[in-house]
Amino acid sequence: MEALRGDRKRRPRVDTSSAAGLRAMLEDGIFEFWTDAPEPPLIVRASSLRNVKDTTDIALSNHARLRGVLVHELVRLFSVGAEISSAFDDAFRAWQLETVAGELFDYAQRLDGDDLARLATDVMSHYVTLSRALGVIPATFQPRSAVRASVMMHGGTIVLRDVIDLMVGTTLGEVASVALFDVTTSPLGTGAERSMRYHALVQTLRSGVVPLRTSVFSSATGEMWTLDVDGELLRRSVNDVLDVLRAMVKHA
Amino acid sequence: MTTFIHRRTGVSELNDLIRSAPPEIVQLGDDHRRSLAARFRAVPSNGHRRIDSWNVERAGQPAHAFRWSPATARRTLGNAALRRMLRDPLCSVIDAINREIDDQLMRDVAGYAQRGSMASWFATLHQSELALVKADAANWTLQMHEIALSIEDQWSVCASDAFYDVARARTTLRGRRDLEVVLEDRCVLLRIRSGSPGKSSGPGLRSDLTIATLAHPQGIAPARMIGLWPESGVCLGVDGTMSDLRAGARDLVRTAVAQQRYHQSIAA
């Protein structure tokens, strides 16, 4: 976490002017290929950028998704310094407090003893990797977990949705201090880099302030990628989003 | 003619929106209150009615039964934690939330908490569930604090929502408000919302504006009611003009009528 925040003296001045330009770039790009307004609106998520090609991924299985959800709950508990006695039980209880229905909920209800034990072992191994990497998050970092964003574009016909697992720092102040931290239970691949850029873009459009860094951590391998956010990274993300939207419009 | 302003939630945009609030002070008198009470009395009611901006936005459709969750508790807990942080600047967000929860648990242990209250719900939670409640409240508090610190005028966290009992109409109106900004002789109210604004957000803000005016002892309207949607980076505003207040009151009465129709259709 300290590495993510970096040396305060070396941080750039806060950039509040790029957001308007990025929004204009996106709007202009959309205008070039847009035909009719779809109903309901097109929704872009970080997962849309990860799975550009129509492939079946083992990470999309119910077991993997439930494991991912539980690991994200653990990140939320970490963010407030909670003492975790049993990673699986604590995460499962926390998840059930918010979730009362849905496909994953039904899947979890149907799990038998063996499946539950397998899932618990899986979650425990991810928890150990995550806890070693995160350590204790100081309250002065102002950690926020599961930060949602929903940015409407093109008159509300396109919505860029995102959930950032952990965000530290503040948008106020003279130097950039917001660091975005995404946790995935899959090994890191090319899609992970696109989603890192996407988190930075959506956060910029939402708050009007360019974040300092964006990072992704794999609790499967213990690997962490961190990128400093600059104009080039954000422009690449705009192109990523336009590519995804072009594909969506083509298939619609 | 009603007003409706749309801006991004940048620091300068928000401050411009606050400072450009109309200078005229609008006041609701006894005649207005009597007229509103008469309209509510004309709508039959099966029991005591409670109407807020959420009911207005849903056009009186019956909502699901209320249940406590991290999402429903975060505003109450988060606002109380922010007030505590402002009283004690050395207190961190997590400390403030922990102390608020401890106070609530003490109320439950002492027997002051009613059944179904937030305090009694906290008492039933496991440590990990309570930690999730804290995480949601911390998000709310930090977001509120960030917004408040970006305001260049004098501000305070509202101690409570605005409540107004309509005389002899068995109706209570509840107006939500989170921050109050004082501009010389007038004030601007801010309300923080989750998600994205919808088509009915304007009427929702207008009903909050009307209820805040009715709840004021002298019936003075806030100069502007601003709704902030930080998740979308959007803020909307309605002015405290007489036409906006009238539109807000009309929406509240219409909601009571729609609620009554829903009740009748369920009974049939």
How does this model look, in words?
The complex is a heterodimer of chains A (252) and B (268). Chain A has 252 residues and is an alpha/beta fold. Chain A has helices at 2-5, 18-33, 46-50, 62-79, 87-98, 103-110, 113-134, 190-207, 231-251, and strands at 42-44, 144-153, 158-168, 179-184, 213-218, 224-228. The N and C termini of chain A lie far apart (42 Å). The mean pLDDT of chain A is 90. By secondary structure, chain B is an alpha+beta fold. Chain B has two domains: 5-62 and 153-267, no CATH class; 70-149, no CATH class. Chain B has helices spanning 11-19, 30-41, 53-57, 70-87, 93-110, 118-123, 127-149, 201-215, 242-267; strands at 5-8, 49-52, 154-157, 162-166, 171-175, 179-183, 186-192, 224-229, 234-239. In chain B, the strands form two sheets. Chain B has a six-stranded mixed sheet with strand order 1-9-8-7-6-3. Chain B has a three-stranded mixed sheet with strand order 2-5-4. The interface between A and B is large, with 40 and 37 residues.
SSE order and pairing:
The complex is a heterodimer of chains A (252) and B (268).
Chain A: H1 2-5, H2 18-33, E1 42-44, H3 46-50, H4 62-79, H5 87-98, H6 103-110, H7 113-134, E2 144-153, E3 158-168, E4 179-184, H8 190-207, E5 213-218, E6 224-228, H9 231-251
Parallel strand pairs in A: 1-3, 4-5
Antiparallel strand pairs in A: 2-3, 3-4, 5-6
Helix pairs in contact in A: 2-8, 2-9, 4-5, 4-7, 8-9
Chain B: E1 5-8, H1 11-19, H2 30-41, E2 49-52, H3 53-57, H4 70-87, H5 93-110, H6 118-123, H7 127-149, E3 154-157, E4 162-166, E5 171-175, E6 179-183, E7 186-192, H8 201-215, E8 224-229, E9 234-239, H9 242-267
Parallel strand pairs in B: 2-5, 7-8
Antiparallel strand pairs in B: 1-9, 3-6, 4-5, 6-7, 8-9
